[in-house]
Design brief:
three-stranded antiparallel sheet, 280 residues, alpha/beta, 8 helices, 18% strand
């Protein structure tokens, strides 16, 4: 499971590094020897504003303090990046609140809507959600897509637990729902790790899925189809994301007109992969 997360972090950093490497063809006075230090220089530029890149926090930028770190507003993060790396072609692969950078990302809102539709069509009448951290824009979009679909169909969220995308927060969510004696409820988890933490702890406590709960995850990570029971989840195609992002970077590099980059957002499609855990 940790290997899968490490792979994702590596994937994102590779995209960033490739964008900087590609940029050497369009930046005046940049020699081939300079490419060895491009990545290091990027971090140095960011650190000038007392911002660090913390790989252990899913690449979240955090503000330096004496012995503490506090997550700052994502919009501020992107503004700093955009200001510091104007000479490089740069594309965001995560949604951000506001037109700050050209963005290619998955349709998180539609993912939440699909989760609600899947659980409702399975026959659930009660619904709950395990959210991601609300400082993350995509976590808000997934939750809103789920909530809006339910409201349009005469239902509402009866139970909510705020997670942090970790396996352990999924375990804690199960303890919360157990404490509140809630059963027969369809749950949308904002990512697969929390869904599997919930599922694992439910089984350890003698509960059944399907049966006591239905649950839909998000991401379609490799371990979601080998865990028992196999997890129903919203699939995001990382190959498609990589191809679209690199195509966009190449397009920016080839355009030497000097025009300002269009701050557009491209939403990539997501789909539901139905396995076992959504069944009532």
């Amino acid at each position: 499971m940790n290997k899968a997360l490490t792979s994702l972090n590596t994937f994102f950093l590779i995209l960033l590094f490739l964008s900087l490497i590609f940029s050497m063809f369009s930046i005046p006075n940049l020699n081939i020897d300079d490419t060895k230090s491009i990545k290091v220089n990027f971090y140095e530029l960011i650190q000038q504003d007392e911002i660090l890149l913390d790989p252990s926090a899913s690449n979240t930028l955090i503000k330096k303090e004496t012995k503490k770190t506090s997550v700052i507003n994502e919009k501020k993060e992107y503004e700093i990046i955009g200001r510091k790396v104007k000479e490089y072609p740069f594309v965001s692969i995560a949604p951000v609140d506001g037109s700050i950078l050209p963005t290619i990302t998955f349709d998180s809102y539609e993912g939440g809507r699909l989760a609600g539709e899947t659980l409702m069509n399975s026959g659930f009448k009660k619904f709950g959600v395990i959210t991601g951290p609300m400082v993350k824009w995509e976590a808000n979009l997934r939750k809103n897509g789920f909530n809006d679909f339910l409201r349009k169909n005469g239902f509402f969220v009866e139970w909510e637990y705020q997670g942090d995308y970790s396996f352990s927060s999924g375990e804690a969510a199960l303890q919360d729902i157990k404490k509140n004696k809630i059963r027969d409820i369809g749950i949308f988890s904002s990512n697969d790790q929390m869904a599997l933490g919930f599922l694992h702890t439910a089984l350890e406590n003698g509960m059944t899925i399907p049966g006591d709960f239905g649950i839909v995850g998000y991401d379609n990570m490799p371990y979601s189809k080998v865990f028992y029971p196999k997890l129903t989840t919203i699939s995001t195609n990382l190959n498609l994301l990589a191809e679209a992002t690199l195509d966009s970077i190449r397009s920016i590099i080839k355009s030497k007109s000097g025009k300002k980059t269009n701050l557009t957002t491209t939403l990539l499609p997501v789909e539901v992969v139905k396995r076992r855990t959504h069944i009532k």
